[in-house]
Design a protein that fits this description.
One of its GO terms (molecular function) is beta-amylase activity. This protein is α/β, with parallel strands linked by helices. The chain is built from 23 helices and 18 strands. Strand 17, helix 20 and strand 18 form a beta-alpha-beta unit.
Length: 705
Amino acid sequence: METEMQRFGTSEEDDEDMGLDVKEEGENDEDDDEKNSTPTMVGVDGVHVTSNRTNNRFQHQHQHQQQFQDQLTPQGGGHRRCRPTEEKERTKLRERQRRAITAKILAGLRRHGNYNLRVRADINDVIAALAREAGWVVLPDGTTFPSRSQGVRPAAGASTTVVTSPTSLPLQQNQVASLRGISSTCSIGMNDEACQMKGLYVPSSSAYDSSASTRSQSSHMLAVEVDDGQDDPIIGVSVDTVGGRQVDMRSKLQERDFAGTPYVPVYVLLPLGVINMKCELVDPDSLLKQLRVLKSVNVDGVMIDCWWGIVEAHVPQDYNWKGYKRLFQMLHDLKLKLQVVMSFHECGGNVGDDVCIPLPHWVAEIGRSNPDIFFTDQSGRHNPECLSWGIDRERVLRGRTASEVYFDYMRSFRVEFDEYFVDGTISMIEIGLGPCGELRYPSNPVKHGWRYPGVGEFQCYDQYMLKSLTKAAETRGHSFWARGPENAGSYNSRPHETGFFCDGGDYDSYYGRFFLNWFSQFLTNHADRVLSLAKFAFEGTFITAKLPGIHWWYKTASHAAELTAGFYNPSNRDGYTPVIEMLKKHGVALNFTLPQMGISDPHMDSSEALEDPDGLAWQVMNAAWDSGLAVISENSLPCLDKVSYNHVLEKAKPLNDPDGRHYSAFTYLRLGPLLMEPHNIMEFERFVKRMHGKLIDPILLEYII
């Protein structure tokens, strides 16, 4: 035996190294059972070298081999006839090349496709995995057929062993549970361990499916014998293991049915650079095609930033709305609704910014001679991302206060686009109140070196805010409190590293409480002033204000990152209710960015930041709903897969909420080529239908799977 293998250039070590045995049509299927047989080795002349199904089969094949050898051996003796050496070398080279290519394919499928392929996977395993991914049922004996009612059931008469697991749950009509990164239908509760698993497939109901009770009874079994001629379901489920144990994913794979739930409008945020610095619409033809796709999947409308730095770029009160006029007309013709953001901040330098839109040039000129019109940190560094709230009532902008500048801009927009307000095309106005349009201090600027999850720095050191702080300290009778905290660390400090934010730190001292009260009240007063002007400019229009999701260090006593952002929300105080009450006074809705974990550093353990995005969302949203405010939201990270969409859906329509509270609208970030990819747009269409509370089209579900 060893001599034969050496002669023809094959060895057991070679096969084990590559782990690849390609099975051609017509080979014995019995070698699929790894417990009862080993892979059959084939010589170049087709002679079976080894087989060990049973002793009788071994003797039979040994006799067959001996007869075949006798036919090849001349009567006078001599050695077995073999092919020329060059042909053997070419065969060996082709086989090695084939195996190398197949090995790379398998490695790629395991690494990037989450396919649960065994180490010695062969081409049959690959085909079976791809077939199951496409929605087909592949039985252990290789029988393959569609899972839908139009498929053909395998011929009766053959007893088939079907492998199931506790994940074989009753499924709702036209729903399929599977695991597959972007294309999966796994439920929102799936963790990282579950998402790394591949191969679980449960077909939806078809003409051959049994009742839900039958499936429920079989859900606790590891093997179910299907009798001949019965109408029991034929369900192929590949059970994955983690750490050598079966994973019970009953609670993780059952997907919630949103049919009949409240209608939540879905908007899509347009790209940042859709309007250039000359206020011209960029690539209108391509944009029109994308908008038509959005319309075809029943999106309610789009959101667009109206940048102060573009419209009033060169001369005060000289507004250029040309590009926005063309865009709004396009949206009007498509019958898409429009949410407009009054963006009084700079674009560029933050997470997700792919263009640079600075503040107006004439504002920058003023800033060069008076940099205190911008927020300033303890080191004296100025941040031109937005204007300091200290100049809201200071006439330092060529005879106007910052509040007057904001109002003039909003009034110009309202007059210019009056027809779209009248016909309802413009359905909502969001008022930018700080960096990134959010009501917060720019406490964590990336341009100044901040990295997640640093606590950030207090931004109160421009002359106008220090003047307000001095006045407040003198009113309190402690003029020496007219300063910022001296032991609050730097941008990238952790709370326990500072004397101000650590447990029992100065944040809870007499001075600390005074400073934080003043600091947070300054934020609320700014929003109060600007929103009162916005209500006057946009009377009768639905107005929103955006709050950030500062969720890192939420599980600490001080909530340090929230304190530097302007929200006095330590563990012993509710810092969001004053803001909510101010919004309620103006009848302004809350836009709360859906917090998501690990926003900036995927290599860091999120537990180190003691973050709690769900806890923060619960606090803010319940405070708003309890006050009777409408709540809208948007995602903070890219959202393309089913897990992310399900997370949004659960937040938008909380399960078992006694008052039936839900989002008033949701804005998806953002339109781009990735969303337009066929599979992604179909997944997005399914998300839109569920947000609208509609039934999922079985044809759409078929394509997604």
